[in-house]
Amino acid sequence: MIPKTCRRIVLARRPPAEPAESDFRIEEVPVPQPGPGQVLVRVIYLSLDPYMRGRMRDAASYAAPVGIGEVMTGGTVGEVVASNHTGFKVGDIVEERLGWQEYALSGGATLRKIDPSLAPISTANGVLGMPGMTAYFGLLEVGQPRPGETVVVSAASGAVGQVVGQLARIAGCRAVGIAGGAKKCAFVKDTLGLDDCLDYKATKDLSAALKAACPNGVDVYFDNVGGAVSDAVFVNLNFFARVSLCGSISQYNAATPEMGPRLLGLFVGRRVNMRGFIVSDFAAKYAPAMRQMGEWVRSGRIKYKEDIVEGLEAAPRAFIGLLRGENFGKLQVRLGPEPAAQ
Amino acid sequence: MIPKTCRRIVLARRPPAEPAESDFRIEEVPVPQPGPGQVLVRVIYLSLDPYMRGRMRDAASYAAPVGIGEVMTGGTVGEVVASNHTGFKVGDIVEERLGWQEYALSGGATLRKIDPSLAPISTANGVLGMPGMTAYFGLLEVGQPRPGETVVVSAASGAVGQVVGQLARIAGCRAVGIAGGAKKCAFVKDTLGLDDCLDYKATKDLSAALKAACPNGVDVYFDNVGGAVSDAVFVNLNFFARVSLCGSISQYNAATPEMGPRLLGLFVGRRVNMRGFIVSDFAAKYAPAMRQMGEWVRSGRIKYKEDIVEGLEAAPRAFIGLLRGENFGKLQVRLGPEPAAQ
Q1: How does pLDDT run across B208-230, given as a tens digit for each residue?
Q2: Do B262 and A259 touch (CB under 8 A)?
Q3: For A93-123, what is each residue's pLDDT tens digit?
């Protein structure tokens, strides 16, 4: 059942600005044999996330860059197809950052077993995985929302943003999203239940529109995008507002740093508390958060939307689209079929 | 002994960019009579501080603007010359924000009595007043320096900066200042005892110079200036660095917001925690902090430098110079003589 060869995608060159498909290379390689203590995983879902653009740069960051010719990094959900590890058996559904490839070895240390009876297994890459944890800790611990406050989230229909907005509602806040396009905004309001959602592509004066949508000002801003959209939020921040900095996707393809209005003076007078974070900073607290998120997902209190494309070869194109905001929901690539239900 | 008339300086018009002396108007007015419960104060020292530029704008801020024709706001130290208040008697030395005028009435509620035997009375406008408290809480509470860390402070010889650098040393940190000119830098190193001080006017690549002066990176940045100087610090911030935003003097005269490189993405990866503050946010904690600062000043552990100009009429010119960085130490205007020692 295990094929002799499989495919993987490596970084072919470092794009200076927007990546092109030619910056990636698809390779056919032998399926590796698990050594002592190792597990062989057939990847079913590959997660595509904005942070991967940072790994394509040859720059010091919080994580090492992907080397030229190395497999692109990425979270995956898969099925154990061979195991020399006592903790995992053939058929187990598992999650780990195994990269853009159809088969991969794992030593087991950071391999997480998924219970497929609790939720669709793809959610381990999304609402019940890294993006869900990002939303949970970025909003609740960094943003510190209090009941009655107003929370604004950018990229509100994205993998992280769609969870942030709903968590803000659960926390008793007015929740206002920002997204690109009428379809995404309708989803954020009608399906996710946020109080409002502004279409930054169709809104001439986003700052004025935010002022109208947030009559009591903005107490917490969860920022996924940076750039001009965030500038429009900042001028609406209340005294003692908190800004949870999760990402700046609008800037990831910039060849040179984009210029924007200087903000520090505004942050002084408003006593803004702005904090950047990486989800793994909260790794020690994942377990209870994951249990809580699981309950909310199973009870339908937290909804989610996935955008799934088919086949490893589709990954580069889909990733380029992600950086343009073309995805609608948590972007994943299905590399192969889910196991038949037992 | 109390004259019939005195002088005051009012805001004549709102400067669109750098203030000119013609934006202020000096007026001769009757010395007011204290009503029931009121105190008449002869102002001896008028404090000139960067925040006053904000009060000249007709814009919503954390404090109301000075109206056209109204007396400019400002901290003062003076002598009670008439009192209908049981808490104050003639001869008391007091501190309050009484504005740019030679005589002023006070209701007493926020009038602070100064003990002239403990320190020169002008320090109640400086190291033992608002600027000292700004340094104390902005560094210790907002910046949260830990022993062994590296603290960088901009405007390091200024009213606030000179205290921040010394507090950083007391906190067990490597302290590096940034100031304009060789004279200021020598003072910061030789008199205040900071580990290093960089002259931003004479340094071509400030970011590289900071990297050399901070071999372990920057853990806490106390920012008084904003602009390009701060940009050079930001790229040297360590993971989990804190930025205490006190002011952005480089931007105060800007007619339109200055543009600068977007920083949010950098703040995410480094998990920077940046927080703006206003000293009065900590008013409930002034008393013990003031006692501690008083001890350090009296023991010589904290040194200070004042830059005193003579006569109310000198205030506009001195204030314009302050915004250009022409002062050397805490800028004050002496409006009249100190009382003879008893």
Answers
A1: 999 999 999 999 999 999 999 99
A2: yes
A3: 999 999 999 999 999 999 999 999 999 999 9
Inter-chain contact A265–B251, Cβ cutoff 8 Å? Answer: yes
Helices B227-234 and B206-213 cross at an angle (nearest 10°) of 50
Q: Cα(A152)–Cα(A164) distance, rounded to whole angstroms?
A: 9
Q: Does A268 contact B274 at a Cβ distance shorter than 8 Å?
A: no
Q: Which two three-digit tokens encode residue B291? A: 């006692």
Inter-axis angle of helices A130-137 and A161-170, nearest 10:
40
Asked if B142 and B277 touch (Cβ cutoff 8 Å), the reply is: yes
CB pairs under 8 A between A and B: 117
Domain with CATH 3.40.50.720 in chain B: 130-280
User: Domain A5-126+305-334 is of which CATH architecture?
Assistant: Alpha-Beta Complex (3.90)
Kindly give, in sequence order, each residue whose CB lies less than 8 Å from that of residue A112, ignoring residues fewer than 6 positions away: A94, A95, A96, A124
What's residue A341's pLDDT?
65
- B264: amino acid identity, one letter: L
Read off the pLDDT of residues A247-257 as tens digits, 9 standing for 90 and up.
999 999 998 88
Asked if the B5-126+304-334 domain carries CATH number 3.40.640.10, the reply is: no
What CATH number is given for A133-280 in this structure? 3.40.50.720
Residues of chain A with CATH 3.90.180.10: 5-126+305-334
Angle at B80 between CA B79 and CA B86, to 5 degrees: 145
Tens digits of per-residue pLDDT, B47-101? Answer: 999 999 999 998 877 889 999 999 999 999 999 999 999 999 999 999 999 999 9
Q: Using the beta-carbon criterion (under 8 Å), do B258 and A258 form an inter-chain contact?
A: no
Q: What is the mean pLDDT of residues A61-88?
A: 95
* CA–CA separation, A38 and A59 (whole Å): 32
Q: What string of DSSP letters covers B127-180? A: TTSHHHHHHHHIIIIII---TT-EEEEESTTSTTHHHHHHHHHHTT-EEEEEES
In chain B, CATH 3.90.180.10 covers: 5-126+304-334
Of the candidates A61, A257, A273, which has its C-beta nearest B269's C-beta? A61
Domain B130-280 maps to which CATH number in 3.30.360.10, 3.90.1070.10, 3.20.20.450, 3.40.50.720?
3.40.50.720
ipTM, 2 dp: 0.93
* Residues in CB range of B300: below 8 A, 6 or more apart: none
